[in-house]
From TrEMBL:
Sorted UniProt keywords: Membrane, Transmembrane, Transmembrane helix
Gene name tied to this protein: tatC_2
Signal peptide region: none
Name of the molecule in the record: Twin-arginine protein translocation system subunit TatC
Keyword Acyltransferase recorded: no
UniProt organism field: Proteus mirabilis
Any single Gene Ontology cellular-component annotation: membrane
Chain segments annotated as transmembrane: 16-37
Length: 42
């Protein structure tokens, strides 16, 4: 990580945390959508 701007030293870890948390929560979100779809079509 190279800091090219004053704000980048603060924003880079925040962006990384957001990206990792979204990536980690995608399977849970997909499962919830699938469970809703499965029960509504039965």
């Amino acid at each position: 990580m190279s800091a090219t701007d004053v704000a980048s030293t603060f924003l880079t870890p925040i962006k990384l945390t957001i990206m990792v948390s979204v990536f980690a929560s995608v399977p849970v979100i997909l499962y919830q959508v699938w469970a809703f779809y499965r029960t509504s079509t039965v």
